[in-house]
Amino acid sequence: MAKESMKAREVKRAKLVARYAAKRAELKKAVNNGDYEAAQKLQDLPKNASPVRLHNRCKITGRPKGYMRAFGLSRIQFREMASKGLIPGVKKASW
User: Fold this and answer.
1) Residue of 27, 21, 76 lying closest to 54 (CA atoms)
2) What single string gives the DSSP state of each residue in 34-88?
3) CA–CA gap between residue 57 and residue 19 (Å, rounded)
4) Mean pLDDT, to the nearest integer, of 47-51?
């Protein structure tokens, strides 16, 4: 399990990204049109307001590595849940 502080930090970043999304998009559009003042304003936004700084984490354990986007789980949780039949449409391959 990930530390609660790490999970909380990621949630805080996600909220910050959502709060600044519209402003960030507007400034990026202005920068692409050649407005250098907008570039400075874009740099003045908080670092954590950038969506690049978000990191996907397992919904159950908070594990940052081995994340499967389609399910929102780490590979370990995915395997356990799939083996128990808790994920619809997923079954173990056998031949």
Assistant:
1) 21
2) T-HHHHHHHHHS-GGGSGGG-----TTT---SSEETTTTEEHHHHHHHHHHT-ST
3) 20
4) 95
User: In the 8-state DSSP scheme, what is residue 8?
Assistant: H
Q: Which CA distances in Å does 20 have to 8, 27, 44, 67?
A: 19, 10, 12, 26
| CA-closest candidate to residue 78, choices 47, 32, 70 | 70
User: What residue type is assigned to position 16 of the chain?
Assistant: L
First to last CA, the chain: 34
Contacts of 29 (CB under 8 A, 6+ apart): none
Cα dihedral 5→7→9→12 (10° resolution): -130
- Predicted TM-score (pTM) of the model is 0.79
